[in-house]
Automatic annotation (TrEMBL):
Residues 306-327 are annotated as: Disordered. It comes from the Bacteria. PANTHER family: DUF4139 DOMAIN-CONTAINING PROTEIN. It comes from Aurantiacibacter gangjinensis. The lineage of its organism: Bacteria, Pseudomonadati, Pseudomonadota, Alphaproteobacteria, Sphingomonadales. This is DUF4139 domain-containing protein.
Length: 528
């Protein structure tokens, strides 16, 4: 009996097949999971990521083959890549580490012929000759010519190399490849899905407050935009774009896993061209009179023709249609915003898409101050202003608000003016929304102890404090005053509510007046 052992095809035996350009593409962007609500998106160092799905067509020969997907994102996390639609599945995955560059071109041509063109110092004419590359591009470049071995650009004359073609395996775009097997071969539509580093997004809000609103009734409009950043060097044209809001639990370091391919330059260590003995050339500027001569002068006759009476102007064009708004969907506990039309996600670019357009939202202008025992002092302190509303339909909202930056404008006789810029955290439907506006110039508070506390028994004695609120506005205001931390003090003498671990007392202050109030505190009794 004769036994024949058939070994699997080696990598050299596999046919290389290039997949088509993406026929359909979807990009889902996730925020930086470690970015705090008060931190802004960093265009120079994005730490979010995206899920990219590309649909391509590939024609496979019978047997094993290698499929090259050219033009994937440079921040691709190769270990996350999944390819579906192949009859034989995936045998092996590879991420090409080198991009087409001067250094890679030289390294790929090592031992092969190139053409070198340089200027003949005797005739001044460019001459081209054949040469063989004898060194790699990690220092000086040495060629073998008819005259012997020569170092490129070390003669002091301009020189350039011409290559017959691009070495096999080099590409100007990042390449991801897989090995697969098909018994019969054929044409298939496959989907490549992978995570990519170098994306991020945030929400940007614009709140326009009506002119002249008082603290009891404030009406404002709220527009919101998804600001999406792609820091990769690749564009994704005509893509289905989505953004996911909420904090996603991640344990992988996508930045380290991405490891973008390098495009190494060609470094030649020879003297520079020219000479430094003559110094820098003196810049030559055109005179002002010469610039005037180049300008187009409109004659008086032309001016008269432009202002001559004629037919009435055409009617104004109709207003443009409203901008498309991203639709919100549920994704478990997260929120998915789907852009309603296909769009281009440009390389190293920002894109904004509207996702919220609400008008006539009911709000209230609050003032806030802190008079906790350890903060009590005699000097007046400006109260902090705050624009509050409730995220429900009764107040004109009722949609999840992802974290981001909000710019607040107020109407005036000369148009809308910027009054504050602050940050918003994530707000779910039904929550109270608070937008800080900064310190007030019209409302101040004063807090002080009623007696010396150096001999006080904090757990046995009630200690008194008093406060004053000074309102210089021509209208009444409502102020919330934090009087104690819930875990640190017992409070009596004031009606308080608990919020965010602090006890707040709400005080109404008439216009152009001062309101005084008092309360007592002591440390809570701790049982042994």
């Amino acid at each position: 009996m004769t036994m024949v052992c058939v070994s699997p095809a080696t990598a050299q035996d596999r046919a290389t097949v290039d997949a088509s350009e993406p026929e359909d593409i979807a990009v889902t962007v996730y925020r930086d999971p470690n970015r705090a609500p008060w931190q802004q998106l960093n265009p120079r160092w994005p730490r979010g990521f995206a899920m990219i799905s590309e649909t391509r067509t590939v024609t496979l020969p019978p047997g094993e083959s290698r499929i090259r997907f050219e033009g994937v994102a440079e921040g691709m996390v190769a270990v996350s890549a999944i390819v579906t639609g192949l009859p034989g599945g995936t045998i092996e995955k590879n991420r090409n580490a080198d991009l087409l560059s001067p250094a890679a071109l030289v390294d790929g041509t090592l031992g092969n012929r190139v053409q070198i063109t340089r200027t003949n110092p005797a005739t001044g004419e460019a001459e081209t000759s054949d040469a063989i590359v004898r060194t790699r591009a990690d220092g000086g470049l040495v060629l073998q010519t008819e005259q012997g071995f020569e170092a490129v650009r070390c003669s002091g004359l301009p020189e350039r190399l011409t290559f017959d073609g691009v070495p096999e395996g080099l590409s100007a775009e990042p390449v991801f490849s897989i090995d697969t097997r098909s018994d019969t071969g054929g044409t298939y539509q496959v989907t490549l899905s992978y995570l990519s580093w170098g994306f991020d997004w945030q929400a940007n809000y614009v709140a326009s407050v009506d002119e002249g609103g008082d603290s009891e009734d404030v009406r404002f409009d709220l527009n919101a935009w998804l600001t999406i950043l792609n820091d990769n060097g690749q564009s994704f044209e005509n893509a289905e774009l989505m953004a996911v809001a909420g904090r996603l639990n991640t344990v992988s370091d996508f930045r380290r896993l991405a490891d973008p391919p390098d495009a190494e330059p060609l470094r030649l260590t020879c003297w520079p061209r020219g000479s430094t003995a003559a110094g820098s050339p003196v810049p030559v500027y055109e005179s002002y009179e010469e610039e005037l001569r180049e300008q187009i002068v409109v004659t008086a006759r032309r001016v008269e023709q432009d202002f001559a009476p004629g037919a009435p102007p055409p009617p104004p064009p109709p207003p443009p249609p409203p901008a498309p708004v991203a639709a919100q969907e549920d994704l478990g506990d997260l929120k998915l915003y789907r852009i309603p039309m296909r769009t281009d996600v440009n390389a190293q670019g920002l894109k904004q898409v509207a996702f919220l357009l609400e008008e006539d939202i009911e709000g209230e202008l609050f003032y806030e101050a802190s008079c906790t025992p350890w903060e009590s002092r005699g000097a007046p302190v400006p109260a902090q202003m705050r624009l509050d509303t409730v995220n429900d339909e009764d107040h004109g909202l009722g949609a999840p608000l992802p974290a981001g930056q909000v710019a607040i404008f107020e109407g005036s006789s000369v148009g809308d003016l910027l009054v504050a810029e602050t940050n918003l955290r994530d707000y779910a439907v039904g929550q109270d929304v608070e937008m800080p506006l900064g310190p007030s110039s019209q409302v101040f508070t004063t807090c002080r102890w009623l007696r010396d506390q150096t001999t006080n028994d904090w757990q046995q004695d009630w200690s008194g404090l008093n406060g004053e609120v000074h309102n210089a506005n021509p209208h009444p205001v409502t102020i919330e005053i934090a009087v104690a931390m819930v875990a640190e003090w017992d409070v009596r003498g004031l009606d308080t509510v608990v919020r965010d671990g602090r006890r707040f007392a709400r005080v109404e202050v008439p216009a152009n007046s001062t309101h005084a109030f008092a309360w007592e505190v002591k440390l809570p009794h701790i049982e042994d």
